[in-house]
Automatic annotation (TrEMBL):
Protein's name in the database: Sortase
Signal peptide: none
Keyword Hydrolase: yes
Pfam families in the cross-refs: Sortase
Alphabetical keyword list: Hydrolase
Classification via SUPFAM superfamilies: Sortase
GO molecular function, one term: hydrolase activity
Hydrolase as UniProt keyword: yes
Organism: Wenzhouxiangella sediminis
Amino acid sequence: MRRFLVLALLLAAVWQIGSAGWIHAKAGLGQFLLERAWQETLGGKGDVEPWPGAVSHPVARLRMPRLAVDHLVLEGLDTPVMAWGPGMAVGEGGHHVLAAHRDTHFSFLRAVELGDRFELVEADGRRRWWRVEAIRVVDSRTTGIDLDGVGQAMTLITCYPFDAPVAGGPERLVVRLRPLAPAEEARS
């Protein structure tokens, strides 16, 4: 009986480690496979699926030089999309909302500071620089994000806290950015 218990615990541990490793492997592999599709998209081929049956396609590239961040961004904010990279939706007024998992693509948000600059390159080749103007933690049960009500802004969202033992709690880290003026962009 004792050997069975030890074997069962060992198998459970291997399963848990394998599951955690798969999440990170999927996140890394996704960015690698998305790169080809992104290059074709920039080359004018439209929305290019990164692999047959993909749940989404790249629509932007998010860079943050201070922390050496460079992520391809996918269309949509659904959970299956975020397994492969940050997801994005854009409102009518130009509000860009990006969401990603706290333990993969948006793990760097724990080090973001007010005033940090981000570059967003969209599928049509447009480049725009953004500056962090607010960082706050909200309760997702009482606070929503209005995709159409903010105008020109970018909001980055991930689960919070970063070191919570169980993912998917109600708290979210919300990082709000505003576009830089052309003169400020030139200095970026």
